[in-house]
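Q: Two folds, back to back.
A: First:
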Amino acid sequence: MPLIHRSPDTGVWLLTTPRTSYALWIDDSGAPCHLAWGPRLTTTEADALAVPAGDPPSSFEGRPPVGEELPVDGGTRYGPPSLQVRHPDGTRGFEWRPTGHRVLTDVPGSAELVLEFRDRLRPLRVALHYRVRDDTDVIERWTVLHNTGHEPLELLRADSAAWTLPPLAGYRLSHVTGQWSAETQLRRDPLPFGETVLTSRRGITSHHANPWVMLDGGAAGEDHGPVWSAVLAWSGSWRVTVQRTPDGRAGLTGGAGHDGTCVPLAPGEEFTTPVFAGLYSEGGFGAASRAWHSYVRTHVLPHPAEPAPVLYNSWEATGFDVDEAGQKALAERAARIGVELYVVDDGWFGARRSDRAGLGDWSPAPDRFPAGLGPLAQAVHDLGMRFGVWVEPEMVNPDSDLYRAHPDWVLHVPGRERTELRNQLVLNFARDDVADWAHGWLTRLIAGHGVDFLKWDMNRAFGEAGWPGHRDGNDRLWTRYVANLYGVLDRLRAEHPRLRIETCSGGGGRVDLGILARTDQAWVSDNTDAVDRLVIQHGFSQVYPARVMSAWVTDVPNQLTGHSVPLRFRFHVAMAGLLGIGGDLTRWSEEELVESAELVAAYKKVRHLVQRGRQYRLTEPLGEGPTAVQYLADDASELLLLAYRRSPRHGTPRLPVRLRDLVPGARYRDTVTGTVHHAAVLTGYGLDLDLPSGDWASTALHLVRVPDEVRPADA
């Protein structure tokens, strides 16, 4: 069956993925309408869904509030619009008039459907884009809007797509919420009637919500049940509106922007929305997560197959007290325990002695690095490690040479106070001169100082978000800022192919598919406490793979929470993602350094499973029993099991942990103890974890399939 097919009899478009189908058609009014999203359909079965909507149930009803591919503002539509236009005369509305379609198949293994429309009365063209591939059930959707007239328009809302669910007896909404140092807290709640809005008005993706949702009928679990999900690829302000209607339907719409702003569209101008991708899965939340993980690794990340190095970051060891001698001493200890990438954090530049000054003056401090960063980079390279630095290109301290020279470069409103957060202001990246300045000093830094890696931070949300002197600047900056940010990252990567980048925004404030298409990993949270991280990492893994999840081992008591847990436990938690170390190695004992080197070496043996394997959340975090996560090779030839237990309560049942998706009839050998386990026992009856006694116990089990030919004859 082709990936995209149009019925000559009914006009139904059928989009086919490996396990699912998506069907739509253009109704008699000219509007694109949803028909199906779920299990695979034949073309004949999809045609049977093409039934005219009929009259409303009463004279008090208009068009159904869900069911259109991009609900517009106009006519008798009363649900949340995906497209809301204000015309030059102040009127609003849009009426669909189809003008054609295209099916693009120039990329092997994929197909793209473009449905083209215009407004019946006004000079506005709209193109709905759908992309499907033969190796994923994720469907990518976006919209292109083109002002073909001679006067400017305002897009009051320009969402990427709307998604419609089938009628169900009930609906449940899954999403994450949180705050700084407590990001990605998973919530699963019944979907209330009416409209539920998830959003960021901060100019960044935000710590407080993330632009994805999952919906089910209320009975799905980790390993069973149908789940519908959608993820927005955008790194600025965003909005997703989920709606449950009184007539038993549910749908959602989402895109860039937030209430109170618009996208100006000048004559001849075109606006392309970010991708709002959707996925239907029949295997519960776990299967949905694994499908998203595979999609991100295969179709989003720049270098998904490249093993991420073990990283050391200097921040918690030195704070702002950074100099060449101290960094070299730390680098020597980091190399000793097996670190592969050494990163100098904040404090290496300008007059940066605290967070009150220096941001914007991106030259190595001459009193701390007399010859620049080159000698330190060379020392790090000589130790066999790559060299990285922390940067915050989008920020400036008022106490800086840059701000004194260019006070107009920051987001501001004339006559209003310039509100500082963390003693800093936001540079207006929507301005091309600011973006070009950032690209210039960054490329000089990378090329002139042997930099292999950037930790790109962004430590505060927008404030006084104005762009004086630019027509429509106060509205235009929200999308233009992100476009220029993407442009700088794209240029740097093209000019420096060996450069790798970590996205960071005061922790997990900028994690989304848009930024991950231009970076290699994400700093998930400034909270490095291993106990809290179990919950944070659980929520993060709902959509994002372990391949992008940076996780550090830091000192105890933890700087933020005061928790003290064993070094091994801290390592095992960080080994669930991209292992990093952030403690002050000059204070670690000889025994701790030796143990750390052993654990780093153990991680290197299994990181291919963590970074490229299929992830299974076997238990919930911090329950009565152990928290367990499994990483399985694609061919099920080997696996890693990470398990953690907090302080055991006397009398708590000791339950085995059941593994997932092993080869039936196979046997698996523990690479440390040599113990051989039967797959049928591991999956059907479970593994009794031999966790050490006491508080905060953990283990890492690496099991490898025993070749069939060496089995005993009676096996």
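A: Second:
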Amino acid sequence: MSSGSKKLFDTTTALGRVLAFFAVSALCGVLVAGLMSPALALTGGAATGATEALAAAPSELTSTPPGQATRVLAADGSVIANLFTENRTDVPLEKMSPNIKNAIVAIEDSRFYEHGGVDPIGILRALATDLAGGRQGASTLTQQYVTNVLNEQLVAQGQSADIVLNGQKGVSDKLREMQLSIALEKKFSKDQILQGYLNVVPFNGNAYGVQAASQYFFSLDAKDLTLPQAALLAGLVNGPAYYDPSQHPDRAKDRRDLVLNAMLAHGYISQREHDDAVAAPIQLKLNPPREGCASAAQAPYFCDYVLHQILNDPAYGADPTARLNKVMLGGLTIKTTLDPRLQGPAQKQVDSTTGTNPDKWGASLVTVQPGTGKVVAMAQNSRMAEGQGSGFVTSYNFNVDSADASGNDLGGAGGYQPGSTMKPVTLAAWLMEGKGTDQTVDASRRRYGSNFPWKSTCGPVHGVFDSTVPGSTDLQNDEDGYYRPMTVRQGIYNSINTATFASAAGLTDFCDIQRAADALGMHQGDGKDHKLDLSTLGNLLGGENVAPMTMANAFATFAANGTYCTPIAITEVDDNQGKQIGGQSQQCTPGAVNPDVAKAATNVLQDVLTKGSGLLIPQKLGVPDAAKTGTNNENSQTWVVGYTQGLATASFFGEALNGPSVRMGRDITVNGKFYPVVDGAYIAGPQWAGYMQQVAKYYDHGSFDAPPQRLISGRG
């Protein structure tokens, strides 16, 4: 019994049982009309104060509905995951087999349709049994429903410790239960009460309500329960653990047959139906529920991302705890943008990239649809729980900002150094100023000292590359032979650092690089509120961490001819009544990047795959595509970010856990192959191409629009 409950009598003594008898008898005298018939409940001469109290009582039962499971769905309606504190899915009475309705009434409350919420005959019979030293329950289905609803409210409010178990209830508890039951029968029909009871009552620790129980024990819906199955479930409510058929089949069969006997005695079934059901063996088809994103049927890290979109959104509650309760207890339907046609190939691709992977190298893919911002695939080669595939286990989401993901003890997701995949930002700034892709810049220059005359209207440019300055070095390219004048186009497709710096030095305003990054939605990996700092020279070459999804979405802006869209993953959120309560609408800005600039950037990035660093990627998509490779200084974080007209994908391979020490991507063996050094085109590249080969066909994969000639030649 709860510490806050007060016993009016000690019913464990003979005197206490006698006093309890008279107390309940007195109550019966006051409420006799309500006890005898639902039609007469609380009418006639009951005291006005008592009547008002009882009439108001059902508000206690409707303030917090029992928790239901939330479903997270892919774009095609397939299930991603179920999220719940208690596995429950409400169904209307008409979607329950008549067998379960009849079985429950027969075994639990055969006078259910005759009494007004409290059964005086049952009470007197139980008291007589108790006074004789035995034990007899007297709660009607309505009283049991009241008890279960009140208990569920305590669970929802985090007060499970205050639940009073049936064997611990005092007279005051029973009186309150009776009051609520009688008032409930005034407001609701018998069918409504029976429906509520069958949806709330626990049948198993993993199955609350008849729909969840039907799925758990038999892998079918409540409407399809046979007579033996329904009788088995009806028998469970008296002791879910004690009569569990998966653990105690003999007990379960005895209890089931007792239910069948009651159904026969009360005229719900014929003798033949009874005998056939008693002769039927117990046949279970257990279907334990998989709860949470870690147990998702597909895309566990996308599920986690979706969950954090809701937990971070005040529209779903005043604080994260309220939002989590809404998800775990609210029976929501969360419809998402995930496309299973892409997700399956993405998951297979990242798993095959690293194989058994004892060194825990990370591999990931994330895809955004240009022009909509929809995140349609998100995969990585780790798993969120033990025993799931051969991947290593981490809650760390490789693809998203730290603010949008669960993190492990290393601090959560926060992006990686994108290396040369940042170079198209400087290219965009160059094009924004009307300069041409085929203009020549001096890529032989390697020193940019503190006195270099950068043209910047928004503040100083930070950083130096100058070997004459202590602690600094001259600017390095990956290979010798490229310290020479070349076109901006050649500098991009061959990924030449000195060409990117020469382009930046040739800008009318260095601040245009920051403006280009902002227009593409670029930001630091910890969250959208922190812009990349493009006033620091090292960041032109990808020195600051950026999440793969941010990179994919930036390149999607090029693919959409300059239309920037905020990434979205949730199309609609419905409550347990089917009413829409949320979702993420498309937020797109046409012309965020000048359309001609975007077309010209795409024109250059196409050359990466046909003339430049992307030539090392053996697979070819066979449709128009564009991309950029990237590698950080330690070769530990490598990329290809590329797109077709309809899909933009960031492919990452490297040190994904961001551990305390830097791990070099040199002289390593991955999936049985030795690499003296890892470059973006070596592992991330084939991963990107192998995946995109399979999925490009599902979305627009036509030709890109040609850029204007003035942005090729640089002459108006």
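Q: And?
A: The two ends are 86 Å apart (CA to CA).
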